[in-house]
Amino acid sequence: MHGPSNMSSGRPRLEFRGVTKRFANPRQGGFVVAVENVSLSIADGEVVSLIGPSGCGKSTLLNMGSGLDPVTSGEVHVDGELVSKPNRHVAFMLQKDLLLPWRTIVENVELGQEIQGVTSAERRRRALDLLAKCRLTDFVDHYPHQLSGGMRQRAALARTLAVDPSVLLMDEPFSALDAQTKMVLQQDLGRTLADTAKTALFITHDLVEAVALSDRILVMSQRPGTIITEIAVDIPDRDNPMRRRQHPKVGGFVVQLMNLLQIEQAAA
Predict the structure, then answer these.
(1) Is residue 240 within 8 Å of residue 29, measured between CB atoms?
(2) Cα 181 to Cα 174: distance, rounded to the nearest angstrom
(3) pLDDT of 206-220, one tens digit each?
(4) For helices 105-116 and 149-162, what crossing angle results, to 10°?
(5) For a tag site, which of 36, 66, 229, 260 has the least CB within 10 Å?
(6) What is the reported pTM?
(7) Given 3.40.50.300, 3.30.1360.70, 3.40.630.30, 3.30.70.1170, which CATH number is that of 6-89+168-224?
């Protein structure tokens, strides 16, 4: 099993310290508290899933972790550095692939490196290598509209990894795909995260997906969102989600998570 490993400094890769986020409420006045006093840390090479009721602030946490949205109070750190704006240590992958339609697949994967100033030869080498790992070698010169939804998401994963981030933030990247394609991409993601030893925080509503991909699962409460439970997934083969799905413990984890979510819904 490819589980969490400790950085030589002992620091977590990603850390939220007492983070609260409030948004102005223009209709009723005052503020809406989206998340409140959230503290969590993710070790180097660890994959953590975040689940919770709709509207509990999961995506808000990722936006703050990426530096796209400032915290109201508390702090977010990546590699020990305070996050106050978007930075190259963090990459974001969303439900939509957001590939640029006028660029080929390989050119899309090169985009982040291009912005970083990587030389054309090096960014092409890195892009082709990642596209090979994502099984897209035969489609590097195609345009996004010529690929299926699953292939576009694989290209989006390659683009995310191409900038060599310390932390991947993933907001339901497979939710728009059919069940079969989703399982194939879960397998790709599991193997890729293990091979590259990347650290990831992953939002999903699919409880089996959470168990199949994660070292730990964090459960959030209704808004204002807080972390109410942390579950360690002590099942081998995190690098092989297909095999992990077949483990007899999976059903027990799913029932446990369902019960926790039902309790939160009932408390609303």
Answers:
(1) no
(2) 9
(3) 999 999 999 999 999
(4) 20
(5) 229
(6) 0.87
(7) 3.40.50.300
